[in-house]
Amino acid sequence: MTRAGVVTSSDSVAGGRATDRSGPAAVAALRELGWEVGAAVVVADDIHAIQDAVTGLVADGARVIVVTGGTGLGPRDVTPEAIAGLTSRVIPGIGERLRAAERQRLPSVDLSRAGAWALDRTLIVALPGSTAAVTEGLATVGPLMDHALAMLDGGRHGHQQPATPRPL
């Protein structure tokens, strides 16, 4: 079973003014997808705090990290910047897929900066901070996560080129 970790990025939850609902939703969704969840942490909307949490989970062996919260346009929404500061390996298709899945129901989803990055052999997925966004987001990209990890381990895409060229 592959290990996952969860980071909730929220000033109000970290400050004790709100209850974390999206982190536990991520844990439940990951377990439903067959992942072992090693740790779930809460940090303030702060670049260094998010980075420390992510690198700590990587050091603990997490192969998938879900960061929930901080993907909007507010001045304290810094999750994408925090992750980008750790790695430049953006996986644009995951963010595109997340937005496409919700566009009909929620046209403002195009303002979301949800997405994914690779840090060494770890897949980091950043989702909005609502329980619905986490649950639906992981249902949308969950089927890609095993394949993404296989690719990060040096595997090939599922579609392979034929051994001999086809005649024209």
Protein described:
By secondary structure, the chain is of the alpha/beta class. It is built from six helices and six strands, in the order βααβαβαβαββα. The chain has helices spanning 11-14, 22-32, 47-59, 79-84, 92-102, 131-152; strands spanning 3-9, 36-43, 64-68, 89-90, 115-119, 122-127. Strands 2-1-3-6-5-4 form a six-stranded mixed beta sheet, sandwiched between helices. The longest helix is centred in the C-terminal third of the chain and has 22 residues, at 131-152. It is globular. The N and C termini lie far apart (45 Å). Residues 160-168 have low confidence and may be disordered.
Blueprint of the fold:
Elements: E1 3-9, H1 11-14, H2 22-32, E2 36-43, H3 47-59, E3 64-68, H4 79-84, E4 89-90, H5 92-102, E5 115-119, E6 122-127, H6 131-152
Parallel strand pairs: 1-2, 1-3, 3-6
Antiparallel strand pairs: 4-5, 5-6
Distance between the termini: 45 Å
Q: What characterizes the major β-sheet?
A: 6 strands, mixed
Give the helix/strand class: alpha/beta
Beta-strand content bin:
15-25%
The 3D shape can be described as: globular
Percent of residues in helices: 25-40%
Radius of gyration over all CA atoms, rounded:
16 Å
Task: Report low-confidence residues grouped into runs of 5 or more.
Answer: 160-168
| Number of DSSP E strands | 6
